[in-house]
Amino acid sequence: MISVATVAWLGLAIGICFGVIGNRSNFCTMGAISDLVNMGSWGRMRQWFLAIVVAIVGVAALQGGGMMDTESTLYTGKRFMYGPYIVGGFLFGVGMTLASGCGAKTLIRIGGGNMKAAFVFMVVAIAAYMTLKGLYAVPRLDLLNPLSVDLSTRQDVPSMLAGALGTSPTTIFNIIALILAACAAIWLLRNRDELGMTLFAGIGIGLCVVAGWFVTAYLGYVAEDPDTLQEAYLGTTGNRPESLSFMAPYAYFMELLMLWTDSSRIVTFGIAVTMGVVLGSFLYALFSKTFRFETFHDTGDVLRHVIGGNLMGFGGVVGLGCTIGQGISGVSTLALGSMMTTLALIAGSAATLKIQLWWMMRRA
């Protein structure tokens, strides 16, 4: 049987790959939205879309091979939390724009020597922990979580369509995966600008997400844990399959550092991935000689990042994920809530970018 430590080491390896790819390609979902809104450029947006498609196709393959079932994941439950999805996603989108990058990009920038990103990491981690268990949890539990409905079926698109179409969710999942793969191929072939980098980033990031599912859903799965005599997904936070996500792991990484001597605390898959992204980005920065320290320009810059970090931590936990956690890992399960959260965070980021542009022009 695979051990918890092995799951963590594999998570670290996946994180290192993600960090190298992200630094080399400048992969950034906030940057993709910014490029599109401010310059009309689809380059990095194609990277993100390709990563999503690769992850969906990978999940279809894992399910087809009996190595994963999306029903066990966080994203596909019957409770459709429309309030948290919309509010959390939108606030996260606003926050990542103010803080100069999403959760993944923050880690990549830390590895490159950016001290602003290190500061944002601490702010996000504290805010995320407060949203999970502290003061910020009050509006999450009392105001937002009640804005939910219980569905008659799971909220992933294949399950919702299965009854009407008279076929299995797995078949519908495979059909959707094939259609999206064909659409991605056509889009990329018709827009060949920087095709090599798009393929490198999109396929690489997508495969990192697939690898995360493979490790936690298949390698880390035990039908009967000797300690609990129940099925378990070793090394995961919620005892369920998980892939790359960076909000709750931020919080639990900070908790681990503060309670290091507590023997009940372990390095989970999510924490290991988080550390791996920083390490991978750092190694690439050293190899490419791009490592350099960067810090804040003025007090206003600090304030923007403090506000942005708080919104990211709160919104990411409320919306059950970030641009990677919901935007790729969640969407790879074809969960409707993940799609809603992703659209909400795009809207939040785009609105903030427009306001920032208006303010700059007004001051000019």
Compile the SSE list and pairings.
Layout: H1 4-25, H2 29-39, H3 43-64, E1 79-80, H4 82-98, H5 103-111, H6 115-133, H7 137-144, E2 149-150, H8 157-165, H9 169-190, H10 195-219, E3 221-222, E4 232-233, H11 248-258, H12 269-288, H13 299-318, H14 325-330, H15 336-363
Antiparallel strand pairs: 1-2, 3-4
Q: What helical percentage do the residues reach?
A: 55-70%
State the helix count. 15
Structural class: mainly alpha
Report Rg.
20 Å
The main β sheet shows up as: 2 strands, antiparallel
Give, in spatial order, the strands making up the sheet with the most strands: 1-2
Q: What is the element string, with H for helices and E for strands?
A: HHHEHHHHEHHHEEHHHHH
How far is the first residue's CA from the last residue's CA? Answer: 64 Å
Describe the fold and architecture.
By secondary structure, the chain is an all-alpha fold. The protein has one domain. Helices cover 68% and strands 2% of the residues. The chain has a two-stranded antiparallel sheet with strand order 1-2. A two-stranded antiparallel sheet has the order 3-4. Helix 5 (103-111) packs across helix 12 (269-288). The model has no long low-confidence stretch (mean pLDDT 94).
